[in-house]
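Need tokens for this chain, all 350 residues.
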Amino acid sequence: MSFLRNCWYIAGWADEFVEGSMMARTFLSEPVVIFRDSKGALQGLQDRCPHRFVPLHLGRLQNDQIQCAYHGLKFDCTGACVHNPHGNGTIPRAARVRSYPMQERHGFAWIWMGEPHRADPSLICDFSPLDPEFFYVGKSYLHVMANYALETDNILDLSHIEFLHESSLGSNGVAQGSTEVVQDGETVYSKRSTSDEQLTPDLERLRGVPAGQRVDRWLDVRWNAPAVMLLETGLTPAGQPRSAGRAVHVAHVFTPETDATTHYWFGIAFPRALGEEGERLAKENIDWLSHPFTKEDMPMLEAQQATIGDKDFWSLKPVLLPSDAAAVRVRRTLDEMIKREQAESETPEQ
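Here are the structure tokens for all 350 residues:
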């Protein structure tokens, strides 16, 4: 499978990376080692020594340099070899590894897997509704044995919560809710609204809804390439306008590890203005959400991936339902972006 390369991918929660330690992760089938330098900035290097191809994360991080554990070559933050302890110390011209531009924003670590000179920080998607400066954020992570596009489909078509999550997130009115798909440039919105809905007891408790009260609910998802999504989920007493209700924001962000495995970070935010109550809600909600995501979504998607195998999704001629509109729009948008990027890379420079 081809990946979109000239875009910002999530590399993890920013607070996963602490000064003095290295973390190895694979993105787009490329091994990367990530660390914070002595100034606190995130650095990403190809996790493969060019000498005998040993993973650099097995080595030692010191003075913003990684020393390979096998033969002692040292590499700086640019990926250049700066020390050769052998012979007369001459550094071979090819002794360097790729460096990846990285940024830290809104509580996430972002990595650019494409051409470094095109890494424009202004292209990073807005996740300010989860910025830890203003919100308590409940955070979690799953390593899923499925293609990242299947994960995207899952979030863009939330009609499935009526069936897959009937005792937790769903109700018997979700699939019949009204839906709208809106595209603004290369950003796609999937908006689902339900009316006069009866929530599950757990959702009533977590959202502060009196037992048995009927509600109108909205589930609005914003998608940006390649697979970063922000969900606004809100509710109001049945028949009341949105302004009478309240909403929370949930991040669903996916980075392909390989063609068939995915990094999945998700989080939910509550304002710091709520004090200890906001902190409690963030922890309680993420602990609760982790169950349906881990025990219901993940097994379903992994079974789906096992069935599809290495076949092209469209070659299987999937039957399409009205609820697939947003996912189909996103797949076609992403396919076009990848196709355009590949065409540009094949065009010789003038």
